[in-house]
């Protein structure tokens, strides 16, 4: 088990290095990027403070040395927590991300909780009552949920709320707390705002997970071990939950780690843009548009990190849940 | 309710059991009147071609039919012996709802079943010990010792404590011949061989001291040596625990060794039931005879071909009228067998056979018709 974990962590590190290199190349890629623009602009100005700033930037980003050492330098800075500067926001990337990182995580966790709390019982109900009216209703709803993109839902909801209620829906905080320091009241305010974007963000995921859960459980319910559990005299509820669901849920763990978690963090950029949420997604999109490459590259590496950690956690959870995997 | 009485040596009496399945094309009449009896502590072998309804019968007894299936009519009279009082009561299993408390007590507690697929009959994420313990905690009641606070508390909960259940599980694993049971009790299914898994299934089945063990082709998925071992084990355990066995198989050789009684099934009906000797040495139904001719025998002249039963089992939607075997029967009487339904009647060495050849009224008519 320990060697399995070490091996998995090892793979993740290798993967991270590869992706960070790609991220770095992306940063360097655009010829007209922010840094060169800034440098030309500063050099053009020609005054002393500008010259100092140019040398400082050249030194910091190692612009005089070749690509590979430059990458190493960047990576070393990265590990130390220096992610470079967001030229557009004129603030260190680290600050920009830190501010949004925890809110992004809070939103993602809330969404995932909603997805699982809704999808598992519904999927189990649908499978154990296959073709019943209830199953057909849930099936229809989940297909609609799968078909409608999240940002469209967000737009519709936004329209409805703005038009017919006076709820302050945009953002994650009420106006009075937006720039206030953290306090319990601010936290409560966050919770009040969080559920709505979490709900929107979880609809597509819930719909998908219902389908998967229903299908998995139907397969599992046809397995001999389910029949032999019933033949032992167990209550049908025990057979369903302790034996069938317990088995049917394993593949979902993988989906949670490899798709749901990163998907909710990254994929909801559109929803977050529509709802004007202070999360990483919209900032990443903006950074790409503005060619704010240090911000974009760093975000990319962070996304990968989340993806890898998600995968790792899922694999560990699965190994913990399924003795057959532990063996390998 | 069942007003009928049972011979005290009879454990289960199935009378005219009919089971239908709803499918898209219509109704599959899987059982069309099944009649047989299982004697206490004896083995009934059930044989018959694929699709004759052996597994459906077994599942009907457990009230474990698929959702689209239902018991349309008939009785399954179970002679329930109260261990504590010694009284017996008659339960018609056909009348019990599948998820009722009574049915759940019987399933696993008094009627246990082992299946054809030992490889996948255990939940992969649970240990052998958990499976056995689960059954024990469900069905066995703790003995109450007066004065012992702990025992009283447990008895109130009416459950055997986990540690004791584990102990019983270890004993059971030992009984079914699994080496190092102390270690094996925490093994997961994938760590056991097919034969070992079937042994675990038997341990689960017998852990609660059932009166009837239904074994639906328990060795089909195993290799020949293991098959013999499992069958021997079942015989040994039957001697020790005294349960009756309903042994479903295609293997007539095994049946001859294991069973005191045999029921022969064809297309949802019992066509012949009797003692093993009667069935093997003096079969009365043409189908039984054909079935017996289809097995190879030692000393059979080399090159002489094994007889197979002519024709195919008809599909469930085009079962012939009259005796359902008439289109394949070598002794068919045209105009008679396709018009009339034979009943199970005493024939040969005291067995019962459902063939018009043994129906005196029919035969009288046939002879009279020939004379004229
Ligand atoms: N759930 C079901 N739905 C429809 N038909 C079914 C169902 N279960 C069983 N049957 C039908 O009932 C008949 C008897 O099946 P059964 O499984 O009892 O045969 P069997 O004698 O056990 O055969 P085998 O030797 O192959 O195990 C078959 O025609 C089968 O198609
Ligand atoms: Mg079968």
Task: Provide structural commentary.
The complex is a heterodimer of chains A (328) and B (372). With 328 residues, chain A is mainly alpha-helical. Chain A folds into 2 domains: 2-89, no CATH class; 97-289, MetI-like (MetI-like fold), CATH 1.10.3720.10. Chain A is built from 15 helices and 2 strands. In chain A, helix 5 (93-128) packs parallel to helix 8, helix 5 (93-128) crosses helix 11 and helix 6 packs across helix 8. The longest helix of chain A has 38 residues, at 184-221. The N and C termini of chain A lie close together (9 Å). Chain B is α/β, with parallel strands linked by helices. Chain B folds into 2 domains: 1-110 and 209-298 and 306-315, P-loop containing nucleotide triphosphate hydrolases (Rossmann fold, 3-Layer(aba) Sandwich); 122-208, no CATH class. Chain B is 32% helix and 23% strand. In chain B, helix 7 runs parallel beside helix 8. The model of chain B has no long low-confidence stretch (mean pLDDT 88). The A-B interface holds A 223-225, 227-236, 243, 246-247, 250, 321-324, 327 and B 62, 64, 99, 104-109, 112-115, 117, 120-126, 131, 134-135, 138-139, 188, 190, 201, 204.
